[in-house]
Amino acid sequence: MNRNAILALLGVVLLGFVPFVMDDFFINLTSQILCYALFAVSLNLIVGYGGMTSLGHAAYFGIAAYGVTWLHTVAGWGQLSSAIGAVAVATFTAAVFGVLALRASGLSFLMITLALGQIVWGVAYRWVGLTQGDNGMRFPVRPEPLGFNINGATSFYYFSLIVFVVSVYIIWRVVQSPFGAGLRGTKDQPRRMRMLGHNVWMIRWVAFIMSGFWAAIAGLLFVYYQKFVSPYTVSLQQSAEVLLMTILGGAGTLTGPMVGAVIVTLVKNVASSYVERWNALLGLIFVLAVVFMPTGLVPGFRKLWKRRTAPPPASTPALTAKPSTEHAS
Amino acid sequence: MQFWLIQTLNSIAFGGLLFLLSSGFSLIFGLMRMPNLAHGAFFMLGAYFGATFMNWGINFWIAALMAGLVVGGLGIVLERGLLRKLAGNAQGQVLVTLGVSFIIADVCLMVWTGDPVPVPAPQWARAPTFFIGYAFPTYRLVVLGVAVVAAVLLYILMERTRLGAMIRAGVDDMEMARGVGIRVSLLFMMVFLLGAALAGLGGTIGGPIMQAYPGLDQDMLPLALVVVILGGVGSLLGAFVGSFAVGFIYNFGTALFPDFAYVILFLPMVAVLVLMPQGLFAGARQ
Amino acid sequence: MTVNRRTVIKGLGVGVGMAALGAPAVKAQPKPIRVGFMTVKTGPLASGGIQMEQGLALYMKERNNILAGVPVEIVTVDSGGAPAVARTKMQELVERNQISAMIGPLSTQEALALDDYIRETKTPTLSVAAADDMTQRRANPWFVRVTSTSSQCSQVMGDYAAKELKYKRCSTIADDIAYGHEQNAGFQATFETEGGKIVQKLWPPLAVPDYGTYIAQINTKVDGMFAAFAGSNGFRFFRQFNEYGLRNKIPLLGGMTAFDESLLQQMGDDALGLLSVNYYSATIDNPSNKRFVEGMRRDYKVDPGYYAAATYTAGAVLEAALKTAGGGGDKQALMDALRNNKVEDTCRGPVAFDKYGNVIGNVYIRKVAKQDGRLVNAVIKTYENVSQFWNVKAEDFLKNPVYSRDYPPAKFLEN
Predict the structure, then answer these.
(1) Which of A10, A131, B57, C323 could make an SS bond with C68 (beta carbons 3.0 to 4.6 A apart)?
(2) Do the domain assignments include residue B167?
(3) CB distance from C263 to chain B under 8 Å?
(4) How far apart are CA C325 and CA C334, in angstroms?
(5) What's the mean pLDDT when you consider all of chain C?
(6) Which among C83, C85, C131 is the nearest to A268, CB-wise?
(7) Which residues of B137-157 are buried (b: 16+ CB within 10 A; e: fewer)?
(8) Omega before C105 within 30 of 0, i.e. cis
């Protein structure tokens, strides 16, 4: 635990130095990565810790983005109240959708979230009076939190970093809390949890709502950065992409979704300048990762690392590898 | 009058097409307990291959069969090469099929460019047929006929052959099937071949209606999902009923409630899943 | 003095064009510039994006990568059609490649996502995106559009249908996206101004595999039907329209991209006689277009259509502006030149720009015909120097709400 805390602190410090060693383009890119990383970490709450795979998570992300834009530009609310209102709407949606989706589990759960996500997309696309349809809405100007101007690349980066670190810290505390233990319990041994008197449904529902809440925070970061929101933000592609990040990096670990977000964002935005068929590349990375590291890159490489550093115990790596796989998932 | 007649015919014909799309999807789903998210891509590949074969001067029906074989072969590669390595990890399998669908879509774009590729109908089916004075596309009736033939053949396969018995046993209870000595791994391969081949065949048969174009995969996959959710997984009858149900919901829904055109398929999907959360496999594990 | 320098540069341009490789070194060789080119090469929008790339590549090849004496390097990026990616890509173009101007993006979503960044970085942008308001109520001072707004061409078609074809009753069908809404509204506005009536409007979603359910609703008691589709949808709709035996019952009037040249060969002889409207046709009879069409057929075996002509025209407009501004060093000068120039010699005919940055140029009514064994959109009538406001004064036009699904309101709907 202590070593992890030091590593985390080191990571934050390193991230703090990003603007000193990189140009504006990469600073902006890192801001985006932070946004998607928070989005993926939020999804990981239910996918990784709760064992509920959702293919409609872009709904909360996008509703927050649309919400803050609509409240600020159409309803004329202030920046702070728009932000709070948008997160409230997105979280409330998550609460309602959670009630529906949690009627089922496993693949049925996945399908309900997918269908609900598609309905949100349909509304964003079709209800032109509310959302301006496929043209999308512009968010005119970034807020000034506590009077700080965050229009520049560097200042916005620090703003994102603070939001990201604080959010991830809280999520980490939640995961470490008795509630988090309960959530993992509902994933691995729901029956036993029930016998011990836990309300499994309630634990899952609360996790679902929290997950929606943090996705909404990421959605705010998204729209503050992009100053624009369109139906693409709530599309199935977006939902699939964030699920891909989460699982690619390693669901059920704190850093896995972040690593996934880094890889996916870099492939989409940087590798696509060099590789014409970057969509196929993304698919290939994904397939290879799932096949060769079914638990994700972070647990996979951790395992490799352990195997390399640990003194080889005779010749039975395959046997020792098995249980650790299960442990990590 | 015309509206109701033509929309009814439309619904039935579209239902036939949906059956060709979703019967294979449902079989794979039922046996392997996973939605093959590359199914839409398989369907699109079928349309592209069919068009290409016809371009070489091959007869429509032979082209359709060839497209089915090629795509079926691809299904085997996917099953043997990737899915098998992930046995027992249903989530991983689903994600691999998603990744494969990305790759297929991008490769299609590279090979057949972004422009739509026309898939011609057989010459004799191009002029419309008239029903009490109203024109209806002949080819859509042909598709309906193909769907019915396919349904009958599949029914015979499932009910009257050893392979069918094994598949049914596997869908009902995999452990039991393994217990009585069914070679499950071979069975998976056969079902994947069959399911993918049906998608490829369906792609060519549906081609003259929809043509082959980038994005066809994403347009079709949700339809297959909805059919299977409404009809139940792994059951041929379910896929048959579900296809026609979706055909009617889709045609009349978008015509009568145009404002709901975008969500017309997902509202019933949510309703079914919420009201019958165990419904997906309920039919399979009675 | 300016004149003098221009002539020298022009001389150089001709020299290079005529392959006089030993052209004498000119004094004060202009600084090479980079031009960003944002297109879509992956995903469902790729068809148009690839044609855009072909058109621009051909123009640069013909000019040997030297525009108005300035060596130009084109930096191509692929946004995949995703607005968020478009933004990062544009940052890459501006911050890392230091582009002097940008050609693209393709879609309105992307263009709107880039809107404030374009203003912020003062990047002259020659976009293909068609949304009306980008050069109307929300005009961006760094934006020029060399093609057409969504409604610019369809307004012409509405007028043509009422006055020339003498249609009284029309129905419309269009993709249910802003591009379709605006095209449709433009047609309706001018058609009804001239006394016609729109009796039915149908809106199939953009990604719809089967049009059967919409075709079954078509009101057959009309003189014609206006069809505004994007991508491959026009082609797919037309095939299904034929299937239902409507081909000889209802004349179709196509919008800008419904029967695009890139779709024509696939549509087959059934398409003969179809009317459509566009700012371009591969049959336009001018030297620049002849060279263009010849080059496209030679290099890519296709006829250019909406998208390829867009970037080819953008190349000519940019070249003229570089000439006027004396290079790409001064963005403001380049922008002023882009907007104030009148460019006589482009493949679509002469173009000029209004104060909102939108093109004033010819619009063509075209009819599908067979020439030398291939299907073409032959020009049957040319409307010269058409403005995005049609014959309405800009100020009056802009007082109205932007064209949409429900504006102008349909007063004559039946059923």
Answers:
(1) C323
(2) yes
(3) yes
(4) 5
(5) 88
(6) C85
(7) bbbbbbbbebbeebbeebeee
(8) yes
